[in-house]
Amino acid sequence: MRVVGIHGVGQTFKGAAELKPEWLAAINSGLEEVNGSTLGDGEFAMVGFGPVFRPDATRGGGDSPVDLDDLDPDEFDADEQEVLVTWWEEAARLAEAAPQPGNDPERDEEPTIQGNKEDTRVRAPDLVQRALRQLTKSRFFSEVSAQNMLLFGLRQVRQFLHAPDIKVKVLARVDEAITTDTRVVVAHSLGSIVAYEALCRDTNWNVHTLITLGSPLGIRKLIFDVLTPRPAGNVGASPKVHRWVNVADEGDIVALVKDLAPLFKGVEDVRVYNGWKSHNGSRYLNSKQVGETLAAALASGRRCGTSSRSGRRNVPTSACESYRRLGPTSRRWPSCLSRSPRVTAAYWLRSCRWVRHPG
Questions:
Q1: What are phi and psi of 188, to 5 degrees?
Q2: Which residue has the higher pLDDT, 149 or 291?
Q3: For the chain, what is the domain count?
Q4: 126 CB contacts (<8 Å, ≥6 apart)?
């Protein structure tokens, strides 16, 4: 598959087959906005890991409604409470700015959200409840239910990062979807954490571009500091890709740290406007900015190598560049092909559309 998508939280009861049409339609809308070639059904694969978090038989997990008065604050560690309070403070800041003249109504937060007046460094018994009561008013969380998004979303993040059995099952689904033909990985929300850790491993993949959407990767303590591999010197490891583009909406509360470049080398931070559905996956996917990034990565793949529809093996760009510099009588071959028979190398090089085989 040329493009692989990895969803975020809130998809506990949806599988890959259900999510694929939604994502593919949004991706193609973004590509059409930049006059790019759209993807066929056979060129896109969806990773659906939500069912990994689905309870087997008992109730009380997944997306079931939660009574805030019944919440046990001890279920949330200090880092999770800190993230909840930070989300609350950001929502309150947006609410305070909402009624001002000249603001875009599409950006207006619910003005009744009240800020936190107490010392947030103290773990008050009702801190979680107070934060969630205010966040449930948020327009930005209205489409997914703030309680479920925040409570179960935080729990899923914690489980993926700290429960080895969960991580193994989730990454196994990624391994099933990504092949050596995969050119781009697009990941939203929690999916960006999954994609990052998957692409940091030693694999034989040839992924060119990683696109992260509404990513919480930059949240210290809860996420950034416990990633695998661990950050060194306050800098995260680099995933094994040629390009990483991180897309965030200024009003996306989940993506608390909008700029990842200070934390990871080589990241390109891009802003997008999603209206009040600032964390919505489809609004990210159908944006011009994501369309441009996808089109560039896919065009690069067509210039050197073949698409997945041809069934041929992709030739690394470095191989094509090296071959362009070779004279027709030269016996020197690109180092990445040096162990292959001449006839096989010639076959691969013929598949490069922009390289003329000397015959």
A1: -115, 135
A2: 291
A3: 2
A4: 73
* Confidence label for 324 from pLDDT (cuts 50, 70 and 90): very low
330 and 300 share a domain? Answer: no
Residue 42 lies in a domain: yes
- The Cα 84–Cα 222 span in angstroms is 11
Beta strand residue intervals within 207-298, DSSP E: 209-213, 243-249, 267-272
At 332 the pLDDT is: 42
Domain span including residue 103: 1-308
- 38: closest CA among 3, 73, 83? 3
In which residue are the tokens 């995969």 written?
A: 182
pLDDT digit string, tens, across residues 271-318? 999 987 888 999 999 999 999 999 999 998 665 444 433 333 444 444
pTM of the entire predicted model: 0.72
In a shared domain, residues 79 and 167: yes
Question: In this predicted model, what pLDDT tens digit does every residue of 54-104 receive, in sequence order?
Answer: 887 655 554 455 555 555 666 677 777 777 777 777 777 777 765 555 555
Question: Looking at the domain assignment, is residue 359 inside a domain?
Answer: no
Q: Which residues make beta-bridge pairs with 186?
A: 5, 211
Q: Is residue 85 part of a domain?
A: yes
* 240 plus 343 within the same structural domain: no
Q: Say if residue 341 is in the same domain as residue 259.
A: no
Within a domain: 12: yes
